[in-house]
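Form P-L/3: holo structure prediction, ligand zinc ion.
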Amino acid sequence: MQGMMNGLVFRGDRTVEILQFPIPAPGPGQVLIQMKTAAICGSDLHTYRRPKAEFTDRAPWITGHEPAGIVAEVGPECHRIHVGDRVTIYHYLACGHCRYCLNGMYQWCLERRGLGQPNAAGPDADYMVVDERNCLSLPPELSFDDGAMIACIAGTAYASLRKLQVNGEDTVVVFGQGPVGLMNVIIAKAMGARIIGVDVMDERLQLGGVLGANMVLNPQQVPIVEAIRDVTGGLGADAACETSGSAIAQANLIDALRPGGKAVFVGFGAQGPSITVSSFIGKQLQLFGSFVMPIGYYWDLVEFIIEHQLSHKYQQMITHRFAITEGAEAFRVADSARAGKVVFSWE
Ligand SMILES: [Zn+2]
Ligand SMILES: [Zn+2]
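OUTPUT (holo model):
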């Protein structure tokens, strides 16, 4: 396909620019995606905030990693995906053959390239090229917005909660009510758990309540560990998810769990150490790290979203929708920590 397209690039110190790029051509085993939804992620914001000096000596690259769209063109040697297919994209490109790839863990492949990094153009653009193997077909029940959620945060939340094996007997505390935390609330609720949402921003706590948290707590207003013990018979919570990346939250999480409790850590960004090994030996806690879902969870997650009718909750989570040409404002809103999910939309 000939022509030019809009592409969003970071310039450092919270500035973005929309540049014109040639529409890329798919090579062997690759397809061209016409974007329909591309969502902004908390991890994009880490890059958005980096200083200008880190951007001056390198060519600008198109950012983002949460796409869904329509296949506009297929390159040679593509057999499964066709022009017109509605797809979401698994956001780590990988070799597809190594032991990690064969286990669905593309994010561990030694040849991995994450979309939106300098070596793999992301979806904050009218079009992008990706490997055919990264295209996941969207069933008719799911929208492009659902696809963009699955591309990152729904997959991340689902994979993290599978590690906790959450069920209807559990009280689960979700630290952080940003988009990933809200997604953990939605999915853990659908798994049957009773949910306590924790955040310091009242706008986000309110959204947590709307999306399924049975109770929300602001640690700036209540002593958080005592408050959690108070509502769990003095014992502490059965399980917890840490999505905020705050060192204080990480420490509170350990204290808020009951003996034998489980927790999963998803949020990056904590400055310095937060917990000590001796804090979880006596309580025999099980602590997990979780990062991106294995690609093999895709159909299980799709069925879970359809079965539990989560699409309308995802729509409630999307608080702001922008054209790609409004990229500066979109990132300003996402950076405010008051929004739910912020998306670029071509619909
Ligand atoms: Zn993401
Ligand atoms: Zn590999």
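COMMENT: Residues 162 and 188 are 9 Å apart (CA to CA).
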